[in-house]
Amino acid sequence: MKKVILSAFTAAIVLVACAPKASPAKTNSIMPAISEISSSQATIDAGHAIFATKCTKCHGAKTNYVTKHTYDEAKPVMASMAQKAKLTTDEIGRLSAFLVANAKK
Fold this sequence. Notes:
By secondary structure, this protein is an all-alpha fold. It contains six helices and no strands. Helix 3 (41-59) packs across helix 6. The chain is elongated, with a radius of gyration of 19 Å. The mean pLDDT is 82.
């Protein structure tokens, strides 16, 4: 009986470990290129509001991440977080405007 349980447990671990992972190219594709991002102050302010309400809900007021990374460095992280926060395409665009405006140059 112990061998059966151990075998089943081992098989479950192998199946989970071998499951396909999210592709970075797929998650990065939801984030717009810098050339596609609006630089209007209204869009940047709307992005700040999204950051303040959606991002800080889980991460607190950790705004130093944005200022310590370039937009390209932050894109994969933000793409993953945007999916978890269930942001719409418009919200992602506004958040991206805020990120570009405040990111390390």
